[in-house]
Amino acid sequence: MKRVFSGIQPSGEPHLGNYAGALLNWVRLQADYECIYCVVDYHAITQSYDAELLAARTLDMATAILAAGVDPQRATLFVQSAVPEHTELAWLLNCVTPLGELERMTQFKDKAARDRKNINVGLLAYPVLQAADIALYRGELVPVGEDQVQHLELAREILRRFNARYGEVFPEPQPLLSTAKRILGLDGQAKMSKSLGNTLAVLADAEEIWDKLRPAVTDARRVRRSDPGEPEDCNIFTMHKAFTGEAKRDELAAGCRSAGIGCFDCKRVLADAIDAQLAPVRERYRELAARPERVREVLAAGATRCRGIAREVLAEARAAMGLLR
Fold this sequence. Notes:
Elements: E1 3-8, H1 16-29, E2 34-39, H2 41-44, H3 51-68, E3 75-79, H4 85-94, H5 99-103, H6 106-114, H7 121-124, H8 126-135, E4 141-144, H9 149-166, E5 174-177, H10 206-213, H11 235-243, H12 246-258, H13 263-289, H14 292-320
Helix pairs in contact: 3-13, 3-14, 4-8, 4-14, 8-9, 10-13, 11-13
């Protein structure tokens, strides 16, 4: 069985973008692969953050992952900082990574432009830590969205360079490309982000879901109710692909193109579909949040397993580089 590695930042309570883009996929993958899932708190501290909230947000994200359906009997879940081998391997990989390749990363440029007062070395070396995250478990497959393809390709190049210089230590990870279109924020301008205030929380109740969706941006063609639209260019329809059945989606798409249905009605159907799918997740989350010690036990067990793997792989990498044992 091939091994999958994937991580998610601890933003706290996840939003629909996290759920549809990562968590649903994680639940599906655990049936067919050996899955190692990680809450990547070291990555989170490369940008401005609230130190007083980080631990709580990490636990919240882990709780949400379990509530979404990731099963600790079928997949391993842990927190990145609980396995210090991540940072040591990242340092080793830093030493085979050209500076210019990091400076060319699109995400580094974008994040640096948004927060010019906090352009730190950790942000620059973020992709190297990603490479270490994957390599430390000899990850063979990595689920990626369109915004992470460049980082995975750099990780592959870093590991190729390491292997060429020191011998075949790491497999070259392959992408598991998502076929789902990325859900944009409710403003239609960028991906969902709490910092941009354009998210819809996974744990939102029916009333909040509707309050958030009602003013959400739709296809610009539909200025009036009688104007036909193109659902493939509408973020609301992208959400329907994640939450609404195929037959109903086809009906909505036809109604949009013929102006037989208005955006308001389309959003109402979506709100009901989201609420129906997420109601069980909300209930499981409440149950787990009432027993945080259970979530901590899952994370501790995951970290113990991962440290066992990580120590062996790191020892091999250190030996290949000639470091004193």
